[in-house]
Every structure is written in C-alpha cells, then in structure tokens.
Amino acid sequence: MLLRLSQEEFVALVQLVESAENHYLDWPLTAIVRCGCRLYHLFLFHSGHINHMIEYERDPDIDNTVREIASTLGMRHLDLSRVICMRSYGSKSRRVLARCHVMPRIMQKALGTGAYYLIEVVSENFEKLQDDDKTRTLIHELMHIPHSFGGGFRHHGNHVTRRNVESMYRELVRRKSI
Fold first, then answer.
1. Could you give the angle at the alpha carbon of 86 between the alpha carbons of 161 and 148, nearest 5°?
2. Pick from 38, 89, 92, 98: which is nearest to 66 by CA?
3. What confidence category does residue 90 fall into, taking pLDDT thresholds of 50, 70 and 90?
4. Are 172 and 132 in contact (CB under 8 A)?
5. Are residues 114 and 146 in the same domain?
6. Residues 173 and 92 reside in one and the same domain
7. Are residues 156 and 79 in the same domain?
C-alpha cells in the first residue's frame, strides 16, 4: 500500500517519530517512518531548505549492524555498551563515509568514566553505498578501536588497511553462511 502525504503531513509525522512520545507506534511503522525521515532530511538538505549546520541523531539500525558485525567476528575487546552509533546530516564532505570518534582520556578522567567510542555515518555519502560496502565501512571504523578499549585510537597504517578490512569482510560473510 502506497501512502501519499502532503509536505505538512510528512513534517508532522517526522516530528512525531523524532519526539520521545512515539513509544506507542509499532516497530515496523517506526522503522518505515525513520527511513522516510532520513530521505526527507536528505531532500531538505539538497533542496537548500536546511542551513548548513550538521545535525546528528542516534541510529539504532547502524547500532544493530555494528553489534552483529562485532559479535560475528568475535570482537570481544569491544564494550558495545560504550560504542555509540550516530548518523549525521548536512555534511559538505564528498569523500568521508564514516568517522570513528573517541572521548579523550582527559575527559574520561574529568568525568570519572571509561572510554566511549562513537561511530558516525555521514548520511549523504554512506547511503549511496551498496550494502556490502556499508558493511566494509563499519568494519573499517571498528578497526580503529584498539584492543585495550582505553580511549586510544588505531590510525591507518599496519592495522587499519583495505586489505585487512577486506579480509575481515570475507570472514564475516563466511561465518554468516555457516
């Protein structure tokens, strides 16, 4: 069934889903509307209706994918309760697909907390990818998180390489097919 909404109705629906009061919506509808919200954000950005401030939102779909990847590949060093997945809208970057951010150790000490890692997908670029390339991108970002999970960051070089990402991707596909 195709649901046609006016722009005003769609904006109202977007606001409903983005509000904290959407707990009464069943999950399939919520997932469909979230997807529609992303498309609407992209439409607003490309049509010039959104200023060029980058906007961020938590992304449970990316979060679930990251958890599945980490679990399937046996990345037990990751404390997934402290890996947060966000989606950004409004980036002017044309090459960046995703980023891995880390809370600096001095902030951890000041706040009395452990390390937190944030995986940001740049919606405008990430959504253009095929599903397998999205998975490779998320594997790449997870590889930046060191085994110590202490607030450090693994840079590109010996560990975070295309060859290692591809190797891990093939292993993920192999384990899923078993």
1. 50
2. 98
3. confident
4. no
5. yes
6. yes
7. yes
